[in-house]
Structures are given as C-alpha cells and as structure tokens.
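Reviewer 2 asked us to include a model.

Predict the structure of this chain.
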Amino acid sequence: MRQQSAEKSRKNAMNSSDTMHLGCEADLLLGKRLQQPSPVAVAILIFIIIIHILTFPFTAVLNALVMIAVKTKSQLRAHKSNILLALLASTDFTVGVFIQPSFVAVLVLFLLDKPSGYCLMRVVRFVMASQMQASLFHLVLISGERYLAMKHPFAYVTIVNDCRLLVASALAWLLPVILHIPLAVDKTLLTPINNTLAGLSVASITFIISCHITVYCETRRHEQKIAAQQVTREAREQFQKDKKALKLTTIILAVVMLCFVPAVIFVSVALRFRNKLSLETVYIFSSLGMSVMLLNALFNPIIYSVRIRRFRVAFIELTCRTLNSSEAEEIEMRVFGAPKGVVRLEGGQQHGSLDQQNVQQANVNNSGNHKSDILP
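Predicted model (structure tokens):
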C-alpha cells in the first residue's frame, strides 16, 4: 500500500510539473519547444544575442539623451516637432531598458531548453506589442503635427501646445496597454482584440500616408510661390524650417518601414508555414523578425543627431558636463564641419551666412551708387 501511494504521489508530482511547463508553453505562438537545435540554429541565435547585448546600452543612452536634451534645452523645446521626437524616444527608451535585455534572456533560455524562457516570452511579447502600437500612435501624432504646420499654420499656433502634446502622448501609451490587459484575464478575447488592434494599425498607417501626401503637395505649392517671389522673408524662413522637419519625419517613417516590413514578413511566414517548415527555421525567422524591429529603436536617435545640429551640440554638452554651449559647438564644428554657409576667420570668429554677407555687400554697393547719383 505504501509503495502504491508513493508511486501515485510521484506521478502526481510529475503531472503537475508537466502542467506547469505546458502552461508556460501554451501561450507560445510557435507551439513547440526548441529542443536540441542544430549548430546552424545555435550560431544564428548566438549572433542575434551578441548584436542585442552590444546595442541595447546605446539604445537606452541615446534615447535618454534625446529626452533630456529636449527637456533642458529651450532652443530644442521651442519647436513642437522636437517635443514629439522626445516623446517618440520615450517608446524607444523602453526597448533599450527592458525589451532588448529580456529578448536576450529569452533566446538564452531557448538555447538552454528552459521552460521559464517561454513564460518570459509572454511578458516580452505583451510589452513589445504595446510598445510597437504606442510608437505607431506617436508617428500619427508627428504626421498630424506636420500636417497642421504646413496646411493650417494659423490654426497650428492655437491648437498645438506642450500640454496637449503630453496628453496625446499619454493616450498613445494608455490605449495599447488597456487593449492588451484583458488578454491576461481571458484568452477568448484574443481574436476581437487583435482585430481591434489591426483595425487601429491600418487606420493609423492610412492617416500617416494621407498626411504625408497632402504635406508633400503643400510643400510643392509653397516652393512655387517662393520661386515666384510671392512670400515674405519670414514666411520663406519658416517654410525652410518646416520643410527640414518634414524631411526628418519622412526619413524616420522610411526607416520604420524598412525595419518593420521585413519583420512582419519573417513572422508571418514563420507562423503561416510553421507546419511545413522545420521548427528551427520557424524560430530563426521569428527571432530575426523581432530583432530587426527592436533595432529600429537605435536608429531613430542616430537619425536625429545626423539631421539636427542642435541635437548633436546638446549630446556633446550633456555627455561632457564640463563644457558650455559655445565649447560644445566648437567641438561639434571640429568633428562634423562648419554648418552650411558659415565662414570661419583666422581668429576663430564666425561670420554670418554667406547670404547675409551678400546682402550687406549689396546694400553697400547700392549706397555707393546712390551717393554717386546725388553728387554734382
């Protein structure tokens, strides 16, 4: 009797352990555990792990610098588009601080065949899905801001302010989180929630594309007016600033598309053909797709620093706390070269732009001509 009861208790313990493992694996999209992977699969997963170990500190630090620079530098904060870039950097900051390290831990646990890796994968996928949706909503805000600035400049001044941008960013964060929370309670809501998120994503992408098409047409119209000399100098300068901000937004969206489209293709192929493909291939495709999406968070602050000189100067000043603004500008000019149209003299002094010098010279010539006309 004792032997039978001991055997029964041992079987119950084994069943409970298996149930716990299956509970971890039940939420895994790939359906099966990766057991005894081939050397090729191990090499690819290790390569992905190394890439993210090397990049996640830069992702966190660079995006933190973007947020701190906009918060502390009034010249950056004066432009609403920079505030939106800092809010977008907050979503990328979560990638470097939480998602990338957790993704590395998941891949390591996959290679070690630990069931806890599949449990951690649930949390990573939840946070990553919320972060991706929040990033998409922030891109909607950036596109809408550019649309108002170019299409309705007078309404833009009254509609867009710091408080409203912060509220919109908070809603862009809360909405994906609120939609994903019910999935932790009731798995039967997976289909309607996924359909809702898919509908919001399609609507967001449609809005972004329509805004950029409209803004592009408006930009062409402004360029024609400027060519015909039908605008004031102030309006021309403002248009150049808006055009530069539009180019930056377009580059950000292009990089996002380059990162997300291959990732969506990889994950879709892996999930759709997982019964025809080998399990290792499915894991490799899914891991590569998620990896490319996560690296987008590193590219965005690099784009800001390349395209916007004030961000470069602010980064130098923040990283070298002993420097002031003028010293940071000197270092930036030595490393990246003088801004376009700036002339440096031997004494280290800077003249204004070449256009301003030409205007001053033209005024002197006109003054001389006028004096020669009135002389007897």
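Residues 233-272 form the longest helix (40 residues). DSSP finds 13 helices and two strands in the chain. We have added this to the supplementary material.
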